[in-house]
Amino acid sequence: MDAQALTLNNIIEKNNQGILQMLSSKGKEIFFPKLGILAQSAQAKGKNINATIGEAVEDDGTSMHLPDFDPLINMPVGNIFTYAPSFGKPDIRDKWKEMIYKKNPSLNNQVISKPIATNGLTHGLSMAGYLFTQPGDTVVLSDLYWENYNLIFENGYGASVELFKLFNKTGFNLEAFKAKLNSVKQDKIVLVLNFPNNPSGYTPLTSEVELIVAEIEKLAKAGKKMVVIIDDAYFGLVYEQKVYPESIFVKLAGLNENILAVKLDGPTKEDYVWGFRVGFITYGIKNGTSELYEALENKTAGAVRGNISNISQLSQSLLFKVYQSPNYENAKKEKYQILKSRYEVLKKSLADSKFTEYFEPLPFNSGYFMCVQLSEGLNAESVRLHLLEKYSTGVIVFGSVIRLAFSAVPEAKIPELVNNLYLACKDISNR
Ligand SMILES: Cc1ncc(COP(=O)(O)O)c(C=O)c1O
Fold it and tell me: Which has the closest alpha carbon to 344: 423, 208, 254, 238?
């Protein structure tokens, strides 16, 4: 193992032995190289002649670039064309951390790591997979989950995915959650929590969050090493009063030395910049010191460097600029209001009792989506195809569940969407 990785592992072990056990073999071996090219380039910064970096530079020292870009982007050249650090740009990392505290006031003074930039949340999930999962590990997910988790944790890192039933009759299925966690034999459990959930659009109520957290804590107290990967892709988009409004990271980040909370978040869905490809990984653990967090940040940035090198300079710069705009908060609220309004119209549209003959909505209160459970005997794929062909309406099918992305449908068309679903179900069941 490289001496730089060993140094990081020793720091981690000194601070919290359990985290070393949580790391995968790859996670133990990775490090951000402090020696070699990067160190030598850093030492040459500001020198009269700097022949170290792998970028092209004009005679006046600015980034070489094609002039056709100039009228397209109104930002200093240094914020557009150069490589960003593998850790992410320092200004946006600081800003994002400040925003995590602001958006999650109950974090109070809990010490957390500095966010490391990732290429959207997908890449953050993959980096978490790299660091904490390997063949033989179990990753626990709810049965309604973003399908990409399979590609990441199973195909990518060889872990086994185990599902618990997300819903009982009324809401979060705590019994199923508990039973699944308790069935894991290994000393380490990797748990993925995604609220607001894709595809269901469910976020646990504040009362449910307390119970979920208590179960995780129970296992940690019994000695299990809990890596809780928190996918906050749809953070902030909650539409009901009783729903827990902050990230569950808040509850886990300082709870127990056996619980490593790994928060994945980013502007993709929150700030409506799907194609920018910026996300963040942030760590929280009880008694986490800056030394421990720095070691984890180094490992994460090392994994990023060895994987995609770094994240778009332009995207990070654009976001940082917008986050400083005095209009940012209000503009964001306006977009939230549009989604909330669609949510409310959808709730109202679904309330018509005639629909229960063919489908029932699963619990939903947040996010971009909601799901309906089709009645027994109705084939969801046939309904989907019929919706496309006869009603010019596209939806997504998971088994016997249909997902409606109300985020993508104008409010005025939402009653029609629900009615089309009803009509398609009726046609199919009368065939
Ligand atoms: C639950 C969940 N996590 C992560 C992502 C991916 O986010 P990103 O586009 O930032 O990679 C998605 C996208 O659909 C998602 O639904």
Answer: 238
| Rounded CA separation 362/169 (Å) | 9
Rounded to 5 degrees, φ, ψ at 325 are: -70, 140
* Span from the CA of 121 to the centroid of ligand 1 (angstroms): 6
- 199-223, pLDDT tens digit by residue? 999 999 999 999 999 999 999 999 9
Measured CA to CA, the distance from residue 323 to residue 66 in angstroms comes to: 28
CA of 300 to the centre of ligand 1 (A): 19
Beta bridge partners of residue 227, listed in sequence order: 190, 260
Distance of CA 275 to the CA centre of its chain: 15
Distance from the CA of 426 to the center of ligand 1, in angstroms?
33
* Two tokens, residue 23: 């790391």
Pick from 289, 254, 279, 274: nearest CA to 368 = 274
Q: What is the pLDDT of residues 147-199, one digit of tens each?
A: 999 999 999 999 999 999 999 988 999 999 999 999 999 999 999 999 999 99
Does pLDDT of 288 surpass 90?
Answer: yes
Summarised one tens digit per residue, pLDDT across range 49-75 is 988 989 999 999 899 999 999 999 999
Distance 266 CA to ligand 1 centre (A): 9
DSSP state of 191: E
Residue position matching structure tokens 């530079």 = 57
Residues 6+ apart with CB under 8 A from 231: 121, 125, 146, 192, 193, 194, 264
Q: Which two tokens stand for residue 266?
A: 């980013």
Sign of torsion, CA 65 66 67 73?
A: negative
Distance CA 206, CA 216 (A): 16
Residues contacting ligand 1 via CB (< 6 Å) = 120-122, 146, 194, 198, 231, 233, 266, 268, 274, 279
**Eight-state DSSP code of residue 366:** B
Nearest CA to ligand 1 atom 2: 233
Atom of ligand 1 nearest to the CA of 266: 10
Q: The tokens of 319 are what?
A: 């976001």
Give the rounded distance of the alpha carbon of 211 from its chain centre.
22
What type of residue sits at position 195? F
264 near 278, Cβ under 8 Å?
no
Predicted TM-score (pTM) above 0.85: yes
Q: How far apart are CA 193 and CA 424, in angstroms?
A: 34
